[in-house]
Amino acid sequence: MSSVLRPATTDHGPSAASKYRPISSHLAITPPVSVVIPAMNEAENLPYVFKTLPDWIHEVVLVDGNSTDDTVEVARGLWPDVKVVEQRGKGKGDALITGFEACSGDIIVMVDADGSADGNEIVSYVSALVSGADFAKGSRFANGGGTDDMTFIRKLGNWALCTIVNRKFGARYTDLCYGYNAFWRHCLDKISLDCTGFEIETLINIRVVKAGLKVQEIPSHEYLRIHGTSNLRAVRDGIRVLKVILKERSNRRELRRQEHHSPMLDTVQPASARLDSVQGEVS
């Protein structure tokens, strides 16, 4: 039985695309999709990363963190139209923010350059977005997800931090510190990002919830880094993530306090006080 390509409809405004992009046997989309890949000395891993990227995506934005190997040359050889952006600052957060600014697509997908993410899963993220979600969050612990690259300590830390975020911000995440996510470009207007390190992923997850955006988790499998060593440090990075959580919680309380003590509210007198004032003027 043949399937009919059905254009997806959304309420996110007119798309820049001029044609439908078939992404599966039963789904076609008009929104252009940008994939952001922050990379520093990942020349050996990029062939595995690019091999799984679907050919229907609009653009690949590679953010080069001043690599000393052939990362840029390899990327251009694998994807001739790749948009290479030089990172001026340091840290994964800075790289992602730089990449987001360079994107021209309506949908933005975050993919790591170490080969741990399967680009074939992008179709699931995009499907969730065109079906109504604002933010498609990858989860290694949702039903159907998995990981080959987390120690017991990291799993425990991720669970603890995820539990704190769920309780403090009313989220329902099953995974917190995972960098495979996708979202509509308009979300950036509601979650201003000001974090330069690895904890950027946690900051995004928290601010998405605070902004009231619709989130859908996508089961995702994380594979082992293919070449090289990871810069992740469980204790150090866990502390940095916790600091972000506490800061966002503190900011939320401060906002509530300011709203409660708004000058406009302070100038409104209760009815009894206004009545006393009027009676005083009459007498």
From TrEMBL:
A Pfam family it matches: Glycos_transf_2
The Glycosyltransferase 2-like domain, residue ranges: 34-158
Protein's name according to its UniProt entry: Glycosyltransferase involved in cell wall biosynthesis
Organism: Streptomyces pseudovenezuelae
Record lineage: Bacteria, Bacillati, Actinomycetota, Actinomycetes, Kitasatosporales
Family label: Belongs to the glycosyltransferase 2 family.
